[in-house]
Design brief:
This protein is of the alpha/beta class and about 375 residues long. Helix 3 links the parallel strand 3 and strand 4. The protein has a 9-stranded mixed beta sheet with strand order 11-10-9-8-12-6-13-16-15. The protein contains 11 helices and 16 strands.
Amino acid sequence: MSAHPQHHPDDLSAMRHALALAEGAIGLSDPNPRVGCVILAADGRVIGAGHTQEAGQAHAEVMALRDAAARGQDVRGGTAYVTLEPCSHHGRTPPCCDALIAAGLARVVAAVVDPNPQVAGTGMARLQAAGIATETGLLADESRELNIGFFSRMQRGRPFVRMKIAASLDGRTALDNGLSQWITGTAARADGHAWRRRAGAVLTGIGTVREDDPRLDVRLVETKRQPLRVVIDSRLEIAADAKILGSPGEVLLYAAVHAARPELAAEIVTLPNPAGKVDLAPVLDDLGRRGINELHVEAGHKLNGSLLREGLVDELLVYLAPKLIGEGRGLAALGPFTTLADALDWQFVEATPIGADIRLRARRP
């Protein structure tokens, strides 16, 4: 298996096509990775294409083979381009590498090796053992980025944590009286829902539930799956009629105390720390065990501060509105610091206008 091959002229365009298809699995395939597959005939024609379906349904490779069959195309001697190494284990579906071998493909190009320890190179090895030429490494960074949460869960046992914040130009997320609707515009709010759709779970704190009574579901963009909604509620104070408990999908409450609340339409997990608060790092471990790849945080300044101070946030997703609103609530309760050397350093990875606002993304160095 070659990691740095001399790629064919059609390779780059075919893998880009496969990556575009893989984006169709966003909000659909969790907890499985987002994978796309394109099959080219020996003459370079696209004869099959597909992406991963819902968990338990067909993976990208099988969808592409089905597409080729529906077109009446013979894939024997062709090349399959897959954005992630074909699986080699029996899960809820049979191994994809076996399907590719049985189909008679001559070559398989995978963007990146699967980080799942149950696969981790064995899929490509089985293809090679069957006489199929195999290559990896083409657009690997793009594939990892598309599946950044899956890689996080496989390699760290916890989801990739993205903290979303809507703020004014002077860094305020709400007025001093708590009013925050709406600092950013309609385009930014819809874009925020698109990022919710990417996530396996959306997390907030009891303070936000009490003050804003949010639903935290995906409404402003189309989705086939609602993310799990998670509330950090140390003393289990949530009201039974809170909107977040009534929205479609499941709800998970993390508390620091044991309390009988049978009227709550939610699962309750008790994870206390010595201070009598919810222990946040074990929360991420628990969500990882539940198959959450990306965790989307929409919380208040106190919970934001706790997550940031504990180093549990991987990415900041900040929508900045061109407004100055004066005294109010900040992005996160962090300080005060006594020196700039104590500051938490981040690196910008994106700055994009969204309507009248700007979307900034930053990651830890």
